[in-house]
């Protein structure tokens, strides 16, 4: 495995974390919260400089970073401490990290699409000879798939994915001549067509010109698709369809990025594929970090809202030490989970 791709993967992962923390930093500064330190990387400092009240540091380990705000974890008498700010300011600061990751994912996807001449679209361009699903009250050339069994179709490959998950009878929503057409209980199964080596549904997709608006639209659709993949993965985890051995942490992600680059046919393809995967991970981080789990930003927002509700009911603010204890316990469990996943990643790499 090329060390160059490993270093590139580490760099991208480090950038994702740094961008996340930079979101907290910018939001904190904008909201008037005192920031004691903003660091890129973890471990001993390579470079550090104090400007005003904030210490800026570049640290040794290029994975991680943090934005240390006054009163973030401990009580503080400073009026500009994080815990002494109105709830809306704290929520903005907490959400800003994930917002930055999502925006970064969008930017990377859009940049990757800048050189595109056309996009394969979920629009029927033609039918294979003998396809039984073509007709006045069926599918027609020019139909664009909008929904399959109430699942939104963003990209052409969504059509095959949702058809394969179904039972052969579907509720379709199509865009035909600018109007939506619904086909209820539409039976459709793959079959063998003459000259084809495998079974198909019998229609071929067409292309759309990669105009500026098409690039923007496909950027947004790709990000939405990435987000849906994250939620589907979480659903599979909850329902026991996947286990901890199927999860990956920083070590596994870097290894996957490096393998993605190594398997590409050219260096330019390798960089494209790694950046595409990096955009997916950025969207993934944005969503996962906002889950209502203690120690994550989503957990902090959730407990903040719970505190506001309790304060309205009880007429007094609950002791913040309880929230701190919950986050501390959540952090311990999160670190333990990360350790298990990291060990699993190392074992998978060693076993090949």
Round the mean pLDDT to the nearest integer and report it.
87
Binned strand content: 15-25%
Cα end-to-end separation? 12 Å
SSE succession: HEEHEEEHEEEEEHHHHH
> Share of helix among residues?
40-55%
Quaternary status: single chain
Sum up the overall morphology in one term: globular
Chain-wise SSE layout:
Blueprint: H1 3-30, E1 35-51, E2 54-69, H2 87-113, E3 118-127, E4 144-148, E5 151-152, H3 156-165, E6 169-176, E7 179-187, E8 191-192, E9 199-200, E10 203-209, H4 212-238, H5 250-262, H6 267-288, H7 297-314, H8 320-351
Antiparallel strand pairs: 1-2, 3-10, 4-5, 4-6, 6-7, 8-9
Summarize this entry quickly.
The protein is an alpha+beta fold. Helices cover 50% and strands 22% of the residues.
Describe it.
This protein is of the alpha+beta class and 352 residues long. The radius of gyration is 24 Å and the shape is globular. It contains eight helices and ten strands. Helix 1 (3-30) runs antiparallel to helix 2 (87-113), helix 2 (87-113) runs antiparallel to helix 7 (297-314) and helix 5 (250-262) runs antiparallel to helix 6 (267-288). The N and C termini lie close together (12 Å). It has two domains: 3-113 and 275-351, no CATH class; 118-209, PDZ domain (Pdz3 Domain, Roll), CATH 2.30.42. The chain has helices spanning 3-30, 87-113, 156-165, 212-238, 250-262, 267-288, 297-314, 320-351; strands at 35-51, 54-69, 118-127, 144-148, 151-152, 169-176, 179-187, 191-192, 199-200, 203-209. The strands form four sheets. Strands 5-4-6-7 form a four-stranded antiparallel sheet, with helices on one face. Strands 1-2 form a two-stranded antiparallel sheet.
């Amino acid at each position: 495995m090329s060390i160059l791709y490993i270093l590139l993967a580490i760099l991208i992962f480090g950038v994702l974390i740094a961008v996340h923390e930079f979101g907290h930093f910018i939001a904190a500064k904008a909201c008037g919260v005192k920031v004691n330190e903003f660091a890129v990387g973890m471990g001993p400092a390579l470079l550090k400089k104090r400007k005003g009240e904030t210490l800026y540091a570049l640290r040794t380990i290029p994975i991680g970073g943090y934005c240390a705000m006054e009163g973030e974890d401990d009580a503080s008498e400073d009026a500009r401490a994080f815990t002494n700010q109105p709830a809306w300011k704290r929520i903005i600061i907490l959400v800003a990290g994930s917002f930055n990751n999502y925006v970064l994912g969008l930017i990377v996807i859009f940049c990757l699409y800048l050189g595109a001449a056309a996009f394969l679209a979920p629009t029927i361009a033609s039918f294979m000879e003998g396809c039984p699903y073509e007709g006045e009250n069926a599918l027609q050339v020019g139909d664009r798939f909008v929904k399959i069994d109430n699942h939104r179709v963003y990209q052409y490959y969504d059509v095959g994915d949702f058809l394969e998950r179904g039972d052969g009878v579907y509720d379709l929503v199509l865009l035909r001549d600018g109007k939506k057409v619904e086909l209820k209980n539409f039976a459709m199964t793959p079959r063998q067509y003459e000259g084809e080596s495998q079974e198909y549904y019998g229609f071929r997709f067409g292309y759309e010109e990669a105009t500026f608006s098409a690039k923007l639209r496909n950027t947004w659709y790709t990000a939405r698709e990435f987000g849906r993949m994250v939620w589907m993965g979480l659903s599979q985890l909850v329902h026991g369809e996947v286990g901890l051995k199927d999860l990956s942490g920083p070590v596994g992600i870097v290894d996957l990025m490096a393998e993605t680059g190594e398997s590409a046919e050219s260096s330019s393809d390798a960089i494209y594929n790694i950046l595409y995967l990096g955009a997916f991970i950025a969207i993934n981080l944005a969503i996962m970090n906002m889950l209502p789990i203690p120690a994550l930003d989503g957990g902090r927002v959730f407990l903040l809202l719970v505190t506001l509700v309790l304060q309205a009911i009880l007429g007094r603010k609950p002791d913040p030490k309880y929230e701190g204890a919950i986050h501390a316990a959540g952090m311990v469990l999160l670190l333990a989970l990360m350790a298990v996943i990291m060990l699993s990643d190392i074992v998978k790499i060693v076993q090949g």
